[in-house]
Structure formats: C-alpha cells, structure tokens
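Hi V.,

You were right to ask for the full record rather than a summary. Here it is.
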Amino acid sequence: MVPPVREWTVTFLALRPTGVTVDRAPVDVTGTDGRWSGTVSAPAGAETVVRVGGWPLRVGTTREDAVLELLEAAQIGNPEKLAAWEVVRGSRPVAERLAELSAVELPDAVRSAITELLGAVGAGEG
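Predicted structure:
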C-alpha cells in the first residue's frame, strides 16, 4: 500500500543551491563538500515542483539529451553524427523525424538506439 505522504531527499552535487523551494515552500539545504541535501514531504500521487533559484528543476534527461550522449559516444564519423543530430533537433513530429533518420547513414545499432530513445513514452519533450 502506498503511504498518503512520501518523504523525499533531493541531493545537489557540486555547488550549494540557493532559493530551493518545493511547491513554493522554502526548503532547508544542508551538507558540505559538494553534497547538499534537502528533505521534503509531499502527498503521494500529487505533482510536486522543486525549484532552485526560482527555476523548475529538471530531473532526468530529455530525449534529445539522451540521443546527444549516444551520438557523442558512437564510433562513427562526425558527418553522420551531425546529420543524425540535425534530424533529432528538428521541430517535426517524432514519427517524421524517425522516417527522416532512415536517410542518414548510420550503423543499425546506432539507428535502433536513437529510434528507441526518440520513441520512448514519457521520456521528456520531443
């Protein structure tokens, strides 16, 4: 059974963040040596917004971030990486970008990985 309220600890690495709020309520952030944490409680199943310095905190990666990381690590030529990246960054719907990607010369494993990342449900904006 899911408890009605959950407690979360958000940890920030490197610099100490300022102006951290959860659902507009200030959060105490404590720690040292590049590891700063704040603990909050939030109703289970409710949307909770964490802000740092007034800006929403993005958790995880977007589809594009994941594809960029994949392309940077791929053992393929830079022209192919650039062509694939231009397709991924396009403003067309995902289905159209996937179709356009088929014209880019990529190894099957790279094309399959990009297709999986772009087509992922709930992976971020796209």
